[in-house]
Amino acid sequence: MRVLLTGAAGFIGTRVAVALAGAGHEVVGLDAMLIAAHGPDAELPPDIRRVDVRDSSALAALLEGIDVVCHQAAVVGAGVDAADAPSYASHNDFGTAVLLAEMFAAGCRRLVLASSMVVYGQGRYECHDHGLVDPLPRTRADLDAGIFEHRCPICGHSVRWRLVDEDAPLRPRSLYAASKTAQEHYALAWAESTGGSVVALRYHNVYGPGMPRDTPYAGVAAIFTSALRNGQAPQVFEDGRQRRDLVHVRDVAAATVLACEMHTLGLAAFNVGSGTPRTVGEMAQELATSLKGPSPVVTGRYRLGDVRHITADSSRLRTALSWEPTVAFEDGMAELAQA
Fold it and tell me: Which of 128, 151, 291, 333 has the most C-beta neighbours closer than 10 Å?
């Protein structure tokens, strides 16, 4: 199978390229090598073409003979600065639209889209009295008082986190999240109008060696590791009990290869997570143990707009693609610490 891989020089893209080649597929890799993603001194790998997905003529030349496109290219980050909106819209929204148009022109009808758990917004919560609810953003007054859990919008009592499945509403709460949601919507419309196939992989907190610090996934792990290597204790915000689904990049790459080999009609969305929620405090402690560094310090500090809990139900992916994560949390954190 011949696969066009966008974002092939990125943190996840590089692992996907290796996994695809290992599965016997031919990979045509491209990357725009944006400074925001790779830094000012990054060099283009010799087997990757420097192409921006917004360049329709360059895409047209590469799409000939392609069986499936694996679209990893995107501007990532927290996406909280309104001034960054044009960049997200240009690279993520418009870039995906150009790619879809050129795929149609080339007769390529299969897309694997790197989506994200950020499309779910704050995650899923349940009130004891009112069932599943969409809580309001946490208030500064509560956070200052050390009350970090969300409240029910009806009765005001604390709510409990629940696993998020693929049928949960998409409620983007950041510019990055809005752009990933838009990518899914463009892809769905494209699939329905062309008879194409789209597999949207909603990656949860992807981590592993080489991960960048400024990501919406697990950049905090890179920050903790940097502190520990400098002999400093990791500074854990809130009470350290925020939950995430941390999934190793090798497991993510394996799931992506299976998605590239999958044939479906329309759009099929899958969460990609480990299935075992962990707290940020547990992450910090594992890294400290691996590096024999000082124990984490829970600061009580907070950032307005941070998500409290977001954890995946990945059972649909396990059933449909017979995928199972293979990297244990403890082993993955040790590998990250020593990388």
Answer: 333
Strands 205-207 and 246-248, by their bridges, are parallel
Contact predicate 43/34, CB 8 Å: no
Q: What is the pLDDT of residue 212?
A: 73
Query: Please, which residues have CB within 8 angstroms of residue 124's CB and are 6 or more apart in sequence?
Result: 132, 161, 162, 163, 164, 168
Rounded alpha-carbon distances, angstroms, from residue 20 to 14, 17, 198, 276: 10, 5, 18, 26
Q: Is pLDDT of 223 > 90?
A: no
Query: Residue 206 in contact with residue 247, Cβ under 8 Å?
Result: yes
> Are residues 329 and 278 in contact, defined by beta-carbon separation less than 8 angstroms?
yes
269: β partners: 200
State both tokens at 183: 């990518």
This model's pTM is above 0.85: yes
Q: Chain-wide mean pLDDT for the chain?
A: 94
At residue 310, what is the residue type?
I
Reported as type and span, the H/E element at residue 309 is strand 309-310
Mean pLDDT across 72-99: 91
Exposed e or buried b per residue across 107-143, where buried means at least 16 C-beta atoms within 10 angstroms of its C-beta: ebbbbbbbbbbbbbbbbbbebeeeeebbbeebeeeeb
**% of the chain surpassing 90 pLDDT:** 85
Q: How confident is the model at residue 176 (pLDDT cuts 50, 70, 90)?
A: very high
Sheet holding 266-272, edge to edge: 48-50, 26-31, 2-6, 68-71, 110-116, 197-203, 266-272
Q: Distance between CA atoms of 171 and 307, rounded to whole angstroms?
A: 12
Task: Tokens for 213, please give them.
Answer: 């610090």
Compute the chain's Rg from CA coordinates. Answer: 20
Strands 243-244 and 278-279: antiparallel
